[in-house]
Structure formats: C-alpha cells, structure tokens
Amino acid sequence: MAAPRKAREGEVFESVYSVIALVFVLVACVELVDGVAVVDVYRLIQYDLAGVPFGSRLASLNHHAGSSLFAPGTDLSRTVVMIPVREVNITFIREYVVQRQPLGGLIFLLPRMFSPENKDSMGGGDDFDKDLMKNILVELEQLLVHANIPYPVYFAFEDDNINAVLVDVKRNDATGQPATATTGGYKLVVSAPEPRKLASPTVTNIQGWLPGLKADGDSTQLPTIAIVASYDTFGAAPALSVGSDSNGSGVVVLLELARLFSLLYSNPKTRGRYNLLFGLTSGGPYNYNGTHKWLSSFDQRLRESIDYAICLNSIGSWDNELWIHVSKPPENAYIKQIFEGFSNVAEELGFKVGLKHKKINISNSRVAWEHEQFSRLRVTAATLSELSVAPELLESTGGLVDNRHILNEAAVIRSVKLVAESLARHIYGYQGKNVNIFADNSSLTVNPSYIASLLNLLSRTPRVAPFLSKNDPLIMALKKELGDHTIDVNLQHEALDGMFTFYDSTKAWLSIYQVASVTFDLLLLLVLGSYLIMLFSFLVITTRGLDDLISLFRRPPSRKVKAA
Amino acid sequence: MCLDLSLPERERGERERERERRMTVFHFFNCAILTFGPHAVYYSATPLSEYDTLGTSIKAALVYLGTTLVKLVCLATFLQVSENDTFNPYQELLKAVIGFIDVAGLYFALTQLTHRNISQNHKFQAVGLGWAFADSVLHRLAPLWVGARGLEFTWDYILQGLEANANLVFSISLAALGSLMWLRKNKPKALIPIIYACAGIVATMPSITSYLRRGLGWHFSKVVGFELFTSLVTAFISWQLFATCQRPST
To answer: Is B178 left (phi over 0), alpha (psi -120 to 50) or beta?
Structure first.
C-alpha cells in the first residue's frame, strides 16, 4: 500500500518539476517576441598611418535614423543617416567629411549584387548604370579610406527589411518632422565594444620551390625564375574585401602555373634547367612590405641566382591589352629579352602586351609595384598587370567593387597561357620558335574548372592581412595548394610594417527598432481614459440606474471616479 | 564610448536616453490601464463595491490560481511538446479537455466556498471578476512588464489588453451561467439545454481561439476582434437567460 503511494508521490514531484520547467519555457518564449529587424553591417576600416588616424574611429551606435544629410532643423549629431549608394552625391559627401561636420553615424546601403554571397550574375540593369555605380563606389571608397571620420560608418546590403525602413524614414523626413524621442520613427542600435588596436599583426609569406634538373657532376647553382603574387587585400570594409581581381586573379594564375610546371618537372626528361620559385606574399597594399621581408630573408647566393622574377598583379578583368611594368630601362638586354618573349606569345594568342617603365626613387618609401622590391635588391623583375598606371597607396587593392562579377575568366586563362608559354620557351630555349607547349586538349592544357573553383574560393574570403592570424584557414589552404604542386613549401611569418596600426571590430549587427512617439502615447491615454469613463457610466446606469449616476456627480463624490 | 564628444553633447545624449526610458514606461502604464483598469472600474461601478464583495473576489482569484496549477500539472504530464507550431488536433482536444478543469474550479468557487450573505446576483459577478483578474495577472502581467518597456513599439500589448477586456466579459458570463446551472434550483425546463450549451461554448473558447490562431493562421488582431465580438454576444445571451430565470422567483 505504501509503495504505490510513494511511486505516485515521486510522479507528482516529477510533474511539478516539469511544470516549473514549462513555466520557465513560457516566460522565455514571451521574452523572445520582439519584432526587431537585425541586419549584418560591416564597419569602415580604422587604421593609423605613421600615427595619423584614418577611417571611422567609433564602432557603437545608438541614434535615430535619418535619410538625408540636409534635413533642415535636425540635430544631425543625434542622427544616423542611411544613404543608398546609388543616391550618393560624391561632392556633398566629400565636403561633409572634409569639413568634419558632426554626424551621429553613417550607413551606406550597397546593392545586393556586391555581396560576396550573391551567386547570381549581375545581369539585369543597365551596363551604364552598373559602371556608374562602380565608379561612384571606387571614389567613395577612396574618400572614406583617406579621411579621419569621428563617427561610426557602416556598410550594409539592401534587403527588404532595410528598404522598407528607408522608405518610411524618407517619408517621415519629407513631412519635415525630424525623428527624435518625442516624434517617433526608427532607432538604429549597434552595440559593439570600443575598437582596440590589433596587437602585432603579422604578414605570412608562402613560398614553394620546384628544383630544376641538375646535370650529373655539375656543382654550379642552377638559375632560378621567381613567380610572385601578393594575396592580401585592403578595402573600405575589411570584412568585405575579397579582392577577386586585386589580387585573387594573380594568386589563381600563380597556382595554375605551379600545377602546370609541376607536371612538366615531375618527369626528369622534361625537367627544365631552371629552379622555379613560387611566392605568395602578403602585405601588398602596404608598399609590398611582405615581399621586402621575404627577399631580405634570402640567402645571398639564392638572390644572386634569380635570373628574373615575374610579379602578377590584377590580371583578371582585361580585354585585349596587358602591361609589363619594369624599373630597369627598356633598353636593357634582359628586359628586352623578357619583353620580346611575352610579346611574341601574346601576338600568337591574339592580344597586345605593352611595356611601361617607371624609375625607382630610393628616397621615396612608396613602392607602387611588387617588382620594385626586387629591383631595390638588384634582382631583375617585372610586373604583369592590366593596370597601365601605378596605383597610389591603398588604391586598387581589392575594395567594395572588386568581387567575383568583375572577373573575366577567359582573361585569367589567357594570362596563364601567356606566362606559362613565355616562361617555358625561356626555360627550354625555344625563344622565337613557334611552338605551343600548353596547347588545348593536351595533357598540359590550362584547367578552367580548377581556375574557376579557386576564384570562387578567393571571392568568398576577405583577406586583409592584419586580420589574418598565423594559422588562418586561408593561409593553410594556400599552403596546401602550393604544396601539392611544389617540392618544398614554407611559411614565413613577419611582423607588419610598424607604420601601419589597425583596429578590430569589422562586423556587427544593426538592430532597427520602431519607436512610437510621446504624442501617440498621450493619444492612447486619452482614448483609454474616455473608454474607462464610458465603461464606468454604462455599468452604473445598467446596474444602479441613471439617477445614481447623476447623483454621483451632484454631491461631493465619496469615491473618486476611477479613471486613468 | 563617447570620449570624443564634448561635455554638453554627452549631457544631451543622456537627457535623450532618460526621455526615452520615461516614454516606454509611459507605454507600459497605458497598456496596464487597458488590461487591469476595467476590473477596477467594474468593481467600483456596480453595486459590488457597496456590498463589499472584495473577499469573494479574492477567494475566487485564489481558486483560479489553484486551478491553473492543476491544469499545468495535467498539461505537463499528458501533453507532448511538439517541435513546430502546427495544429495537432489530438493535442488540441487534450488541451480542451484539460480546459474543462477551469469549469470545475469555477464550480468549486461558486458552490463550495463560504461567502458572506450576498445575493446570487452579486455572487457570480464577484466570482467572475476575481477569476478574470487572476487570469489577467497570471497571463498578461509578466509579458507586459518585460515587453512593453522595450524600445520597439508593437501593437501586441494593446491587443493583449483588449483580450483581457474580452476575457473579463467571458468570465462573468461563464460565472452567470454557472450560477444558473448549480445554484438556481427552479429553472424553466426549456432553457436548461440552452444554458448548458452556452456554458460549453464559453468553456471551450480558449481552444477555439487557439485553433483560429494556429490552425487557420489568423492574425492576432483578428483573433482579438473575434473574441470581443463573441464576448459581447455571450454576455447578451447570458444576461437574457439570467433575466428569464430571474422572473419566476421575483
């Protein structure tokens, strides 16, 4: 008799616990229903160059939304202005930023097609419009990156939520009523910790070595040809800087070249009498700092054995002209030889290669092309690029516009063919001869799907060097990829040039709250008050009679009317 | 965070945030009036206050709390928590059956509790009022406190307040029908089935609204509108029934 009762008691206890748990679950569910829109936003980069601050200096945000920089009577220092990029007027923004006028915050809305996750093509919409927008974005990016902005600046992608909010905000602004606590509207909140300096950012260089064929009994060092590309990027929004063209295209061409030459070098009969050195360098946007440190770490003998180096920079979106940039004068015999080799192959492939000469100024620390780092250490080098003019500091380093869609895969393939053929003719001594080593449908044909998959991977991975740790998955992946095609793969970790200091906090969540105004609540109070008074009167009349109601007001009321 | 701002700017920011906090408490206050005001108004407007039936209401509220606890235990024991929010007829049927425990609780409150000498007329009103007040406090106070003070404005809490009003009318109607069923001995024979039918409908009202919400996917505002409408209809019907049954004894 006692045992079943004890069992029942145990069951009751269990059900009580489950009841308490249920109550907690209900309360938790109630809390989660909030109706707030949350959007991914990406912060403008914040960095110091030689102690001078640049970029957006704040991260957290808690102000009302506005839609224009020119609303009269608004206190813009308490407003976050949301501007779609297609409506940006560069001159206004430039004036605003340069004159350091106060603002609560700035959010730029980018069209969906610039999102790295956007798989569809940019088709639909005018080509002219797209070009115009790209130009605006490039200008805007340059403006923001070189300005010191004391309020938070964020980038977000347009989606239905944000578009609806923007339409509402514009409508409110149009009625001339600026949004504050008393007039309702939207509140934008980003709660992010204060940005901190990144302690000791590193640049990681990845090198791969393909040794050439040494004849028996030959003790002299084989000459080396170096193929180099920098893989890191820099842009206004470091979380979005995927740099598909600058310099994802260079990295992909380098890896494909490594694959092709590893095929050739795997068989001693076809191994050339040149060593091949492949270098994926970091620190490109910062005056090719990584390349300099990589070269400085070389053995003197190795450096002297380098016949020449080809640097690849932005070769993914050209149509029919490439440029070879050199720092030695074009009359130099080596340069002539290299250029003629490339030029002949280009002619056969149906496009043009031009030669551009830019002297190095040793006293100027600015290094515009990667080959200049080689030239400063007296190694012959040239840069192959679609850019005809040397970019300025932090220009053309993979920004907001540089994503998968501006790439021309055929151009990348042609670049591979150009460099591979030219190098092979030099290595195997076929200069001037009409021979097609990497012909289509041969075993050495360029592999378009390999190129496409690498381009896709790089177009999804932001690669700003200070934010890449020593063991970042990207670096490991590149190391593995290069290691598959070369004999010896090494990583070199160096500290980034002390001139640059970076700050963290590149991604955040923006919460958009819809706030009601005080007038709304006052109105509601009025309505509720009158409702309760009506209810009171109705009940008094129906239960006690009209006379009672009137008498309630005739003499001093013993009980006050219970209204709000 | 705002190290770069000058002192007057920082003060302005703090003042603005203070204003916002006061504003959202204001909204909470509004919704609280809507949710709990009618109960107070009902008590003071009708003769309930004159006959000091507060004790009855409080006892009814306590009975409601006990009933809810029993219901929760049954729900926890018998109900399976489903992953998604779809409408499962078997579960809903079970919930409806458990909902009838409410009726049992009301029966207990009307018949078993010892009340002071108050007329039947006022007894059911006091019990219904206490019942509805406890229901509002238990189900609506916590969400209101947590949610209405938040930054984001939604209509949900105002709709919840309207629902509380409808629930008040339902509770009083159910108490009226209950008192007719269990306390009044001489009822006209013809009306008995109608009384029981009405009581049944009112008792299953929670299941009906839950079906509308989840099964048919009605928006909350539509559901609240439906509740208000049906509450007025049932109030009218139960008033008529009560008045008809009142006539022979008077």
So the answer is: alpha
